[in-house]
Write a structure and sequence with these properties.
The chain is an alpha+beta fold. Helix content is 58%, strand content 13%. A six-stranded mixed sheet has the order 1-2-6-5-4-3, with helices on both faces. It is rod-shaped. The two termini are 61 Å apart. 28% of the residues are buried.
Length: 304
């Protein structure tokens, strides 16, 4: 469960952060009782399905961001949402699943590192980028390894890893691309609680998300190409094996005809009572097999 806390606001000019666990009914009841909170903001904070966005509303702003989840086996998307309402002197945030790094942000808030909502949100955006960077890089490294392994023996076993990398890249990109736009929109807001330093950090975070989005798009395309190459290699191997089977069948076809003809249980078969007849027929079959095999070898059928 996410922790719920209230930090700050010891005097009128101070800054406070209220973080709520969306799975705690008492916290939701507390949110409903907050006076001055616009109905639209209340709905945005409690929405189940969200996407990254930045929407100014009266004196405040609704911000939705996505970051890595704290618990790997937690239900839902790999990138979990944090919903924020920022206004002069206060931020209210709601999460339904544990966001990685949220405890560190709480400790920094208690150490008075943040003076206003702009400081907090900019730091949160940078925190998310620092956590996502190695994850996206690891996906890229995995695809690199798959490309190397594909040309080696046993490359087909990489199909599952390629599919997993592609699935993760699609899932991450779904939220990372709009998150860049949300941060750029926020950096352009003309509000007193977003200072110049905050705008620089927000733009830097947006630039990192843009780079990650491009990397994820490249991972998706490379994974699709690898999957096509594996399918082509499988089809080629099947064709080669089918060709070998066809050649073997063609080699034995005249031999089967000859042995079937001489094996008929009727009178008049030549040399039926000669002691050397079996050896002659065997030698003839071997000669036919060798000649047909040499023909296919000279015609390069064995190489497809």
């Amino acid at each position: 469960m996410n922790g719920c806390w209230h930090i700050g606001k010891h005097h009128e000019d101070a800054f406070a952060w209220d973080h709520l666990d969306g799975r705690d009914q008492h916290m939701m009841e507390w949110l409903d009782k907050q006076e001055g909170l616009p109905e639209t903001a209340r709905f945005a904070l409690t929405a189940v399905e969200t996407r990254p966005r930045c929407q100014p509303l009266r004196e405040g702003t609704i911000i939705n961001l996505r970051g890595l989840r704290e618990v790997e086996d937690d239900d839902g998307d790999a990138l979990v949402s944090i919903r924020l309402w920022a206004e002069p002197g206060r931020v209210i945030s709601v999460t339904f699943r544990t966001l990685a790094g949220i405890e560190d942000m709480r400790d920094r808030m208690r150490d008075n590192e943040f003076r206003d909502p702009g400081d907090l949100i900019a730091a949160l955006a940078m925190k998310i980028t620092h956590q996502l960077d190695p994850v996206v890089a690891e996906l890229g490294d995995k695809v690199d390894d798959c490309e190397v392994t594909l040309s080696e023996e046993g490359g087909f076993v990489m199909r599952r890893e390629i599919a997993q990398a592609r699935s993760k890249a699609i899932s991450y990109r779904r939220f990372i691309v709009p998150q860049r736009q949300a941060l750029e929109d926020m950096s352009a807001l003309q509000t007193a609680w977003i200072e110049d330093d905050d705008r620089i950090h927000l733009r830097e975070a947006a630039d990192r998300f843009a780079r990650m989005g491009e990397e994820l798009e490249a991972i998706r395309e490379r994974s699709a190409l690898l999957h096509e190459q594996i399918s082509d290699m499988r089809s080629e191997k099947i064709d080669q094996r089918s060709l070998v089977i066809a050649i073997v069948a063609l080699v034995f076809l005249p031999l089967t005809f000859l042995t079937g003809l001489l094996g008929m249980n009727v009178d008049g078969i030549p040399f039926a009572h000669e002691p050397w007849a079996f050896g002659a027929v065997t030698a003839t079959c071997l000669a036919i097999a060798v000649v047909i095999t040499l023909y296919f070898a000279l015609a390069r059928w064995f190489k497809g």
